[in-house]
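Key idea: predict the complex, not the pieces.
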Amino acid sequence: MNKTDRKVLKRNPKDRLAKYGVNASLVLVSLAFVTPLAWLVFASLDRNAGVSSVVPESLTLQNYEEIMRPDVALLPIWNSLLLSFGTAFLTIFISVLAAYPLSRYKMRFNQTYLYVILFSSSLPITAIMVPVYSLFVRLGQLDSMLAVILFMSASSLPFSIWLTKNFMDSVPVSLEEAAWVDGASTATTLRRIVVPLMTPGLSVVFIFVFIQAWGNFFVPFLLLFSKEKETAAVTIFRFFGQYGEIAYGELAAFSILYALPVVSLYFVMSRSLGGSFALAGAVKG
Amino acid sequence: MISTRNLKRRLPILPSFLMLALFMAGPIVWALYISLTNTSLTGTAAQDSQFIGLDNYLTMLGDPDFPNAVWLTVVFVVGSAIIGQNTLGLFLAIGFRSASKAIKKTTSALVMAAWMLPEIVVAFAAYVFFNTDGTLNQILLSLGVDPIAWLFEAPMLAIVLANIWRGTAFSLLVYMAALDDVPEEITEAARIDGASSSQHLFLVTLPIIKNSINTNLMLITLQTLSVFTLVYTMTRGGPSGKSTTLPVFAYDQAFRVADIGYGAAISVVMILIGVIFSVIYLRLLRSEGDKNE
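Result:
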């Protein structure tokens, strides 16, 4: 379509009307989507926030100051960091190891293994939480941060191996061959050549696993119970799940503080992937 | 015969294999086993459980709460994912093509924002939004409509709407990418032939992006089937079971009623449903791959 055609189309009054209609409905959808968010932001800045949406009389950061104490927000956020970094690092490490043979050698076993992996990446994790709990009881691993990290890594592995293998496929073998001629071992080329070349891809996988672990409520809620190991999602739930006086303003501030890292990571990722479209591709797996 | 060289080459796969065997396959096998026992959360049957055969499954068939949970899960998946997220995502993606740039940017940013937030934050914001004194009732009141206690009188509707708010971005991204692949010439040709916009949608656009629609429907169904946090934290499945979907039902039976064996039997049913949908999804992916080759 060239420019004059476009102008002709734009002048058509029916098209114009349709365009107004589209814009108006999009504005309505935006309003519907922003309303609950707006409450969250306003309440976090309002010392007397309740459940109703009101423009606060005075904006204050006092809610944020109140929750910045070790026993309120800081320890749970530290625990969430520990859990998410632990899970992401372990997942990446195991994925890179597994992806190498899957990407480099032609073996019949690979096809089967990749198929199993793709299959388990679409299985709902919630469905296995009851048996996982019972298994953790039998193995004496309840309330163990390490065991939770192992479980969360295992549940992120299918998706992560799949992505890592695809990223590794795009690193040319010829680069490794040159190093092998010079006497480097496979382990060396993997560490010195392949991994550095796929750092952008690996950081995407890392961020994905991190975001999932960070946002997970069910797993730590079920498998960790001592107060000093509580993660931020569970603390937020405990605050608004309890009956009686809820400090809505502080809880809203806590929620925003807790959401901030993942929202910023999404922006980092969409930049490094070149726009939000690539995000959908990555999510599709 | 596997040669030593091949064995050595496969070695790096081993850690991932062990992790998946222990933490993914393990619980599935374990679920099958304890669903045949009377394992409980506390008391003697927690340590010393007995084999009771298919009793848990027979209990399930006679338990009126089970069909209730299945029905509510269907309502949740169909209402929030298949009708809500899917249709809204598709219409937004189509609307974006003729909308003004600023409005498109704002709308997509807001829809994405709800998707990026951690589930518990979405649940908290939705819990407040649907509260008796919450924002929704404030809006209704200003329009002259009597407010209702959403979380008590219409808990499923509140949860469905909350999940549409949270999940539409995924379908939107899928459809934005899919519509980008629709050739401009076809759109133009249809326009010149005088197709109305509904003809254009149903006879041109939808058939072209059929594969994306199928993939999206499968993926959001799988995601929505396993939603626990949103439902549990907004209503705890209540009042009196009116929003108890299958994941919440399994949790309640295992940890509130303290009957792990029965909870595991419900888990087995959920795993089976998941397996069926995953197989369909993989078939879809495969047939798509064949077409591309």
